Amino acid sequence: MTEKTLADWQQAAADIRIDGRAFINGRRVDAASGQTRTTYNPATGQALAEVANCAPADADEAVRIARETFEQGTWAGMPAAERKMVLVRWAELIEQHADELALLETLDVGKPIADTVNVDVPSSVRTIRWTGEAIDKVYDQISPTRDNCMGLITRLPLGVVAAIVPWNFPLSTTAWKLAPALATGNSVILKPASNTPLTALRIADLATQAGLPDGVLHVLPGPGGSLGEHIATHMGIDGLTFTGSTPVGKQLMVYSGQSNLKRVFLELGGKSPNIVFPDADIDKAASAAALAVYYNGGQTCTAGTRLIVHESIHDTFIEKVIEAASGWAPGNPLDPATAMGPMVDKGQCDTVAEYVAIGRDEGAKLVAGGGTVMEDTGGHYHEPTIFAGVNNQMRIAQEEIFGPVLAVIPFSTESEAVAIANDSIYGLAGAVWSQNINTAHRVAEQVRVGTMGINNYFGGDITVPFGGFKESGNGRDKSMHAFDDYTELKTTWLEFD
Ligand code: NAP
Known about the structure:
alpha/beta, Aldehyde Dehydrogenase, Chain A, domain 2, 2 domains, 7-stranded mixed beta sheet, 5-stranded parallel beta sheet, globular, binds NADP nicotinamide-adenine-dinucleotide phosphate, Ald_DH_C, Aldehyde dehydrogenase, Aldehyde_DH_dom
């Protein structure tokens, strides 16, 4: 909840002035072509902003400046303790602009204002502050060599790093990428999703205000298919960090191979298993099962979309999840009481509806929701939906829907639960619910995912790494491990008499 009321946020939305220009070399500029693209508020379908539609020529200019700045060493050569202070000041400025950023994110993505105020903005502040504070505590190494020589192992920034991010958590994902990339001394080109560029642009202004030298950071809104591809194939970019879908992630690795073998780190899709044993705290598990799939309208890479429930509690557990789902009825995202807002756009809402039809055709049993609602708002809202009687071979159990659709799959033995959980091309996240620590640990260890909750869903914070196994990706955001994605290891071998 926020202290402001719906009326307060509506007034703030009416008053807000949005600058959709690109951010190049420390200042806001139009795309070189002068072209703009209209973005829309998913809650109303109304036009929200005119945003610079950057093209390859803009990327070339940004890369040229980023390279020059990197080589001059204005940022990369700055002592870590000073880079730290810039990031800490940046975090403070973001905190001071928290309401403005939360509102921008809600208008852009359709996320409930209670989430953007309480989760997206504060977690982004913490990411930048924590990462900034960490950077002057990282030591290099000396290897255990023979006498009269010394092997120095040092970390160096990659150089010019590109970050391409999606629309579902624009601010948090941007913070996950920018904080370690900048902390380690790189110059960065960020391409936000075409739908949702506003908070990334705004925090770039604040980075300059915090003392980030001009030329280090550039934010280029523009289409994935042309601008994104140009960035991914650019010979002047040394590293590419990406969060988005698995098909695009695969393509980026191809682009890297076709260009300069830039380092590519990927955070991709998921179809995460949430396993419930009969000895679990059933009420807590049912409430968390709803949160796991309906938070952010299911537009979450780690969403717990496969609920794998022991057959002995299957029917009663589903009843409890249906009850919990009623607390996720869609509403106006500017209302502080709303738990779930609209889908990000009509295309995403249509995709969800298509998967509901697929589930029905496959023979799964629709036990809650299943329809679009609130059409009179002009927005794209979908009910929280539950399918029972799902088997793991169905498309609704294998494919990432990216909407509020839960597939409930029964199991009889522990090994069967693990086999179902692992029978997926994805390996991003999951959870297991059991009061028996042996069962919980055994299962958690065997499920092949990057983050596993025991008796919780969506656990974790900036202190732990985040990323996927299998086709969910290969990089790690957050924690000190994130520094690995933005640095090269260099050996300097010294011999002396
Ligand atoms: P997407 O279609 O893959 O787009 C992600 C970004 O890539 C956008 O900025 C997009 O630009 C750009 N892009 C698209 N095609 C490109 C190309 N050929 N070359 C270079 N860039 C290209 O994903 P999305 O629909 O925005 O996001 C949802 C996906 O992200 C889901 O699969 C979700 O699971 C995943 N995700 C993963 C994580 C994680 O940490 N593992 C976190 C959040 C989301 P445009 O916007 O212009 O298309």
